[in-house]
Amino acid sequence: xxxxxxxxxYRPGDExxxxxxxxxxxxxxxxxxxxxxxxxxxxxxxxxxELLVGGMKQR
Length: 59
Description:
Blueprint: H1 2-5, H2 15-30, H3 35-40, H4 45-58
């Protein structure tokens, strides 16, 4: 969760920022959470948090 909160504002074309976002996406995927499902819940932070915590509990 801290990794997500620490991400800088997204800027297309900024390789440094894109690498940071990709690293966090890889971490989320490794925890067993579908990034597509996570993105589908955009705007609903509580549901996203529940999804992440649930995925981590299963690991």
